[in-house]
């Protein structure tokens, strides 16, 4: 029942934060942080159960195939612990970052509900239950992207909603087809079963739309109009992670990815890496550059999963953790910069390393992880993904993926140079000594330390792979 508590606690707690805000802002904010702390603690207590892959059946409803079943396995606990920990740190950052904004009650309610839906999704053992949580995250992200209520922001939120819901509608069609063809939506029962290419294609479109893979990537850079804490959640902790998680859960460890679909999946991942990496080199908005970077790095994760090799899948899971920690730190660093300068245009920034040295250091360390600089965890993850891709026999894909890594180096150096180096334009600025600076340094330090913990992490990941590739 601890798994049930892990997602029911934040979902119920989100409504409690909404009620608490009517009495005290401090009570509401503290309650939101406490709920996420307890949620993360629950995921830690689930670790001993993860190796046994326990399935919990709460019963079934009148809808055909809708069994309220949840699974506690290595993949679910791994992603849940990562997302809840990052969500907790982002909420701590929010205590200072969001204190001057309106609609804070709505913000904390949606963030906690968002994370609760993520917890429910990762533990779902039924495709239709997973889909229900999937749609809750879409609603939360739509409202959070349009948080400032400006006309263009609302349009961007609507664009994100339309693209992701279009994908999820096709995914629902695929789920219905799976039910029609197999008579079940239980992921354990679906393991190894044959389903039609149409069903697989519809499922895949939903996953690609949520993770913003080419050609459905345009909504994610536009989501940068949201507060930086929201973009950190979208890019590192919840929304885009869902797409690659579902790919791993359903198409790697569930139904399975047929050989005929492997090459198209590899090509989509590669195109995503190259197209969005090139776009990042041309943009001047710091958050849009990071958004393109997110899409490209998710392309690497999809690439590793699509290899269906032990080392490729392991690399994808390792890089998922590395990317989540580092990208959250990067977005929050840019959030600090934007709050002080009121701009994200790198042509208007520069020289901030003198006024904001701690933020600059955090940015450098997180960037090294995204680039894949040794000995960061990002290096080991990307190396294993490339090795797994090489085992598939598609050498050209490996060569172009390495070129994509070079693009990552170029646009991250360009971004750091544009924001923190060069002419000193903001001489009156002073770095705030607040929880915000502490949080970004925590992300930066963890991004580096994680590289030295690759051996124990590999032990955990090997257990997850045993369950996925069984």
Describe the protein's architecture and organization.
With 470 residues, the protein is an all-alpha fold. The protein has a domain at 260-470. It has 20 helices and two strands. The chain has helices at residues 2-20, 25-45, 47-50, 74-97, 104-123, 127-145, 151-182, 187-190, 197-210, 219-222, 228-237, 239-252, 259-282, 286-307, 310-341, 357-371, 377-391, 395-420, 435-452, 454-468; strands at residues 54-60, 67-72. It has a two-stranded antiparallel ribbon. A hairpin with a 6-residue loop joins β1 (54-60) and β2 (67-72). α4 packs parallel to α15 (310-341), α4 packs antiparallel against α19 (435-452) and α15 (310-341) packs across α17. 58% of the residues are buried. The model has no long low-confidence stretch (mean pLDDT 91).
Produce the secondary structure layout.
Blueprint: H1 2-20, H2 25-45, H3 47-50, E1 54-60, E2 67-72, H4 74-97, H5 104-123, H6 127-145, H7 151-182, H8 187-190, H9 197-210, H10 219-222, H11 228-237, H12 239-252, H13 259-282, H14 286-307, H15 310-341, H16 357-371, H17 377-391, H18 395-420, H19 435-452, H20 454-468
Antiparallel strand pairs: 1-2
> Which structural class fits the helix and strand makeup?
mainly alpha
Largest sheet geometry: 2 strands, antiparallel
Count of beta strands: 2
For the largest beta sheet, what order do the strands appear in spatially? Answer: 1-2
Task: Report the average pLDDT across residues.
Answer: 91
H/E series: HHHEEHHHHHHHHHHHHHHHHH
Q: Mind telling me the C-alpha Rg?
A: 21 Å
Number of helices: 20
- The residue ranges in which pLDDT falls below 50 over 5 or more consecutive positions are none
Q: What fraction, in percent, of the residue positions are helical? A: over 70%
Strand percentage lies at: under 5%
């Amino acid at each position: 029942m601890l798994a049930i508590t892990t997602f029911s606690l934040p979902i119920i707690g989100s409504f409690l934060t909404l009620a608490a805000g009517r009495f005290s802002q401090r009570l509401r904010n503290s309650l939101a942080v406490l709920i996420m702390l307890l949620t993360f603690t629950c995921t830690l207590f689930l670790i001993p159960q993860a190796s046994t892959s326990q399935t919990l059946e709460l019963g079934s409803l009148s809808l055909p195939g809708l069994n309220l079943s949840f699974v506690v396995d290595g993949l679910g606990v791994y992603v849940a612990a990562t997302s809840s920990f990052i969500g907790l740190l982002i909420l701590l950052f929010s205590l200072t970052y969001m204190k001057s904004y309106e609609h804070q009650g709505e913000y904390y309610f949606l963030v906690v509900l968002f994370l609760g839906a993520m917890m429910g999704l990762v533990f779902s053992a039924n495709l239709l239950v997973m889909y229900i949580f999937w749609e809750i995250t879409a609603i939360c992200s739509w409202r959070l992207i349009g948080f400032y209520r400006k006309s263009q922001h609302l349009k961007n939120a609507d664009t994100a909603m339309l693209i992701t819901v279009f994908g999820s509608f096709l995914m629902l069609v695929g789920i219905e087809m799976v039910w029609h063809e197999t008579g079940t939506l239980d992921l354990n029962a679906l393991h190894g079963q044959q389903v039609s290419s149409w069903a697989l294609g519809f499922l895949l479109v939903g996953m690609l739309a949520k993770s913003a893979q080419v050609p459905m990537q345009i909504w994610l850079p536009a989501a940068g109009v949201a507060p930086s804490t929201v973009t950190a959640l979208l890019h590192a902790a919840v929304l885009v992670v869902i797409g690659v998680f579902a790919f791993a859960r359903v198409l790697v460890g569930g139904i399975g990815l047929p050989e005929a679909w492997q090459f198209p999946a590899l090509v989509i991942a590669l195109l995503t890496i190259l197209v969005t990496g090139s776009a990042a080199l041309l943009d001047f908005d710091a958050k849009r550059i990071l958004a393109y970077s997110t899409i490209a790095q998710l392309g690497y994760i999809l690439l590793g999963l699509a290899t269906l090799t032990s080392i490729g899948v392991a690399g994808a899971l390792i890089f998922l953790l590395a990317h989540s920690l580092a990208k959250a730190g990067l977005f929050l660093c840019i959030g600090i910069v934007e709050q002080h300068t009121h701009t994200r245009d790198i042509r208007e920034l520069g020289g901030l390393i003198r006024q904001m040295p701690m933020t600059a250091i955090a940015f450098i360390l997180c960037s090294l992880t995204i680039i894949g600089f040794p000995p960061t965890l990002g290096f080991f993850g990307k190396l294993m993904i490339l090795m797994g891709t090489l085992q598939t026999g598609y050498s050209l894909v490996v060569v172009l993926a390495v070129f994509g890594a070079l693009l990552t180096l170029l646009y991250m150096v360009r971004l750091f140079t544009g924001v923190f180096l060069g002419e000193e334009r903001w001489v009156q600025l002073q770095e705030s000594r607040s929880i915000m600076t502490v949080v970004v340094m925590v992300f930066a330090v963890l991004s580096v330390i994680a590289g030295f913990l690759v051996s124990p992490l590999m032990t955990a990941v090997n257990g997850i792979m045993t369950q996925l590739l069984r």
